[in-house]
Structures are given as structure tokens and as C-alpha cells.
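# nightly structure sweep
# worker-07 picked up a monomer target from the shared queue
# config: single-sequence mode, recycle default, output format = C-alpha cells
# input follows
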Amino acid sequence: TPRPIADLLVRTSFRALERSSASASARVLDPAAGAGVFLLTAFRELVAARWRSEHKRPDTQTLRNILYDQITGFDINEE
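# output follows
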């Protein structure tokens, strides 16, 4: 998926979640991760949402928690 399209889809989804104040705690699943374009954009959005909700820059442990607990992706590659 081209990055501009992934950015548009992920950001639109997160703007909808912001209306219900759920963006910082959202969980993302990409069942066809491929190169991970959606997951990278989602990670950036989750970090930004956490920063806005906690009013401070996320530290290393928070970034790890987001990465390990809120983002999941898998893909099947026969090679």
C-alpha cells in the first residue's frame, strides 16, 4: 500500500477515535502487514495520542508498551 493512502486511512480512523477519547488506548491489528506501512503509521499516531492524553512526551518504557501491547501484525510469505 502506498504510504499516502495508509496515512490517510490510519489518520482518519484515529480522528474518529479521538471524538470518544479512545485514541490513546486503541489497539491495532494488521493481518496482512507486508512491509508494515500501516503499522508504522499507527505507531506514530498512538505515540502522538498518548502524548496528547498525558501532556508529556512518552518515555522509552511507554513506547515499548505501545509497541508490544497495542500493535499486532502478521503476514504469510511463502519465501
